[in-house]
Amino acid sequence: MTSGPLRGRDPNERDPAGEDALARVERALAGRQPHRMIPDLTRINALVDLLGQPQRSFPSIHITGTNGKTSTARMIDSLLHSFGLRAGRYTSPHLESVQERICVGGVPLAAEQFVGTYDEVIPYVEIVDSRSAEPVTYFELLTAMGFAAFADAPVDAGVIEVGLGGSWDATNVLDARVAVVTPIAYDHTELLGTSLEDIAAEKAGIIAPGATVVLAQQDLSAAQALLHRAVEVDARVAREGIEFGVVNRRVGVGGQAVSLQGLAARYDEVVLPLYGQHMAHNAACALAAVEAFLGAERGPLDDGLVREGFARADSPGRLEVVRRSPTILVDAAHNPAGAQALASGVDEAFSFTALVAVVGVLADKDAEGLLAALEPIVDNFVTTQNSSPRCLPAVELGEIAAAVAGQERVLVRPGLADALDTAVGLADEFGPGAGVLVTGSIVTVGEARRMLRAGAGNPGAATS
């Protein structure tokens, strides 16, 4: 593997010399079919064995759940940084660049580093391919790259988000000292099970023997499955609302101020520059995870460093304001529970006189449930589609939206750039105080962010 520290850089500021090499790697990754999943650990175990078990060179915090995983991971990373620890953060999916998935010190790998890591890992991947009935998957390859990059950096801690589920997810070759389970809801039921108990039992697979597990507030059946696993492996349990939690919160300009009860102390009037009650609960889980990781039994954390960590936290694509006049928000909610949290956050933090929602979802999602959760806060829906081959056609989504909200409140614009321009035009017609919300899929949000930088959603400007 490479020697010397890996220095991260904004993936949008690519070194021109590395552009062709990065394109080569992106094409090779795409050839492994990003959405192909095989529910076992056979290939990833073989791969990390060949690589020398890089994931064991650093202690980790492992994160699963249905919603809030990436935001919680980013807060944990920021808190660890404030305590002087260099973290390797692995999250998925990405918004705009695959490099976002592998971050060192809070920054995505630069193009040349990403390419270098791929080139070092791929010979071992090809060995596993030659010995396996199925080739290494896209996610398994990226997971191995993340572990290898973190071992090379080196990092003081890994902040690792599962891709899907838990027990058979490729990240579950970790033996993490802390596991975090964010709220569990219905999603990917064709793979994880049709009951919350079954889904929770699958996600509980990341709880390692003797670890500490930080549990967000859960449905009772989900909580029972998680606690069963904790008892089974003799894990210490920290439960939101009992051992830790949100004491109070108040909305402020640019986010909120929260008082959090941690495992060892209470931290009052902490500024969190993120919107929504759900983000306060994610922050509580992040704090408890870092306390457990650093050894909460040693006493309270430094109050100033906790404040510093949360003040620096961000979560792109989650209730993110990307433009003003009119205000355009993007949020990657893609299931009913996420949409409910989004609706609550918008209602609480923004005073829109009218709201136009641009929505594009994947075909395997509960589009009706998502739209129903948004309907109370939305005046008009503009249904669209993103570039994913799994995207639900805009016309079909429009029919579902019409059934939920009424045909007179729905417009169909298959092209995302056209949908953005249409939504901004409608907001302008509503007058001052109207806003636009882009949601339904992380793919939709990522593509919208790129288009908005290029001029979409700005009538009269060129769109891409």
In short:
The chain is α/β, with parallel strands linked by helices and 464 residues long. It contains 15 helices and 17 strands.
Report on the structure:
- With 464 residues, this protein is of the alpha/beta class.
- It folds into 2 domains: 296 residues, UDP-N-acetylmuramoyl-L-alanine:D-glutamate ligase, CATH 3.40.1190; 135 residues, Mur ligase, C-terminal domain (Protein-Tyrosine Phosphatase, Chain A), CATH 3.90.190.
- Helix content is 40%, strand content 17%.
- It is built from 15 helices and 17 strands.
- The strands form 3 sheets. An 8-stranded mixed sheet has the order 4-3-2-5-1-6-7-8, with helices on both faces. A 6-stranded mixed sheet has the order 12-13-17-14-15-16.
- Helix 3 packs across helix 9 and helix 4 packs across helix 5.
- The N terminus and C terminus are likely disordered.
What order do the helices and strands come in, and which of them pair?
Elements: H1 19-30, H2 42-50, E1 60-64, H3 69-82, E2 87-90, E3 102-104, E4 107-108, H4 111-131, H5 138-152, E5 157-161, E6 178-181, H6 189-192, H7 196-203, E7 212-215, H8 220-232, E8 236-239, E9 245-252, E10 255-261, E11 266-272, H9 277-294, H10 303-311, E12 320-323, E13 327-330, H11 336-349, E14 354-359, H12 367-374, E15 380-383, H13 394-405, E16 410-412, H14 416-430, E17 434-439, H15 442-454
Parallel strand pairs: 1-5, 1-6, 2-5, 6-7, 7-8, 13-17, 14-15, 14-17, 15-16
Antiparallel strand pairs: 2-3, 3-4, 9-10, 10-11, 12-13
Helix pairs in contact: 1-4, 2-4, 2-5, 3-9, 3-10, 4-5, 7-8, 11-12, 12-13
